[in-house]
Prior knowledge:
Elements: H1 4-11, H2 32-39, H3 50-65, H4 69-74, H5 79-100, H6 109-147, H7 150-155, H8 159-165, H9 177-184
Helix pairs in contact: 3-5, 5-6
Main location: cytoplasm
Protein name: WPP domain-containing protein
Pfam families: WPP (PF13943)
Amino acid sequence: MAEDAPNAAAEGTQPAPAEGSVDSAAAPPASGAKAAEALLPSLSIWPPSQRTRDAVVRRLVQTLAAPSVLSQRYGAVPEPEAERVAAAVEAEAFAAASESAAGASPASVEEGIEVLQAYSKEVSRRLLELAKSRSAAAAAPAEAIKQESPADAIKQESPAEAIKQEPEDSSAAAPAPAEATASED
């Protein structure tokens, strides 16, 4: 009897009275399965409410703009830009997940959960792609600056300027022909 109490509380029903008790004449409570079926139509996993979608956008902004693993690895995004980009990422992911659901509401909670998981994965994928592309775009100009070395600057000079910079005594670098024949003997 005590073992039934936790399950009964979870199902929203009361434990069955002991046989032969005075309460046994009362009408039996609705079964747990029927009560759950009555609640399921009102439980909608997909599509998420606007409040939920707004919470996703707020979390994306926080991930992009505030210190996070993503912002530490790929760089933080200024908050105004993060708000704009997060809203776009969420909207694109929602549209992609809605397409996968064939535009109709899923017939069961399980189907709704699958679409919600696809939405979540799409948000994550698009957010990571965005962070990587911003990081690569920011690194490209920095790499161009780093790669420009003094040798590159010399290449940009005119040929006349390059000749002026050559050492005057180029014979010091190579031995004279007479010295070369003397050392061979």
